[in-house]
Design goal:
Layout (H helix, E strand, L loop, with lengths): L6 E9 L2 H8 L1 H18 L5 E4 L4 E7 L3 H16 L3 E2 L4 E2 L3 E9 L5 H17 L5 E3 L1
Parallel strand pairs: 6-7
Antiparallel strand pairs: 1-3, 1-6, 2-3, 4-5
Helix pairs in contact: 1-2, 2-3
Bound molecules: guanosine-5'-triphosphate.
The site of guanosine-5'-triphosphate has 15 residues, from strand 1, helix 1 and helix 2.
Organism: Candidatus Competibacter phosphatis
Enzyme class: transferase
Protein name: diguanylate cyclase
């Protein structure tokens, strides 16, 4: 995909109902899911993209040179890949979904704090609207 050099996008991704995974299968199983999701994200993105754990079961993904059209394509691809993934852990094989909050700035007009706040608002709306979706703000 050709990248738009003037844009920067950010995704906050949160695993849905993750407390239930821990409560049902135990914390080590939750850790196993988090590790596999990290690998899925890394395999889905480019080397210039920055991925980090954000809080407990959230991930932050910073996408340089990525506009709103492109971030939506990436987010939907991530959502579907994770939704279709079977997480094989020693306690059980399980499925999870994720909700993603997206935001984009042109010419780096917004600070990182502003971008995180906007993505967090989008994530909150996605959770309120039933999870397993992306929302762009
Ligand atoms: N196994 C494991 N669990 C974690 C880690 N960090 C946070 N958690 C758990 O993640 C869960 C987050 O729960 P909540 O914030 O209630 O959210 P949720 O159950 O995912 O529900 P929604 O986000 O509303 O869909 C808690 O049970 C935390 O203990 C971690 O590193 N490993």
């Amino acid at each position: 995909m050709k990248r738009d050099k003037s844009s920067l996008s950010l995704i906050l991704m949160d695993i849905d109902h993750f407390k239930k995974v821990n409560d049902t299968y135990g914390h080590p199983c939750g850790d196993c899911v988090i590790t596999q999701i990290s690998e899925t994200i890394e395999n889905s993105l480019r080397s210039e993209d920055v991925i980090a754990r954000w809080g407990g079961e959230e991930f932050i993904i910073l996408l340089p040179n990525t506009d709103s059209t492109q971030v939506v394509i990436l987010a939907e691809r991530l959502r579907l890949t994770i939704k279709n993934q079977k997480f094989v852990c020693s306690e059980a094989d399980l499925k999870v979904t994720v909700t993603l909050g997206l935001t984009t700035t042109n010419q780096h007009a917004l600070s990182l704090d502003d971008l995180v706040e906007k993505a967090d608002q989008a994530l909150y709306i996605g959770k309120e609207n039933g999870r397993d979706q992306y929302v762009i703000n």
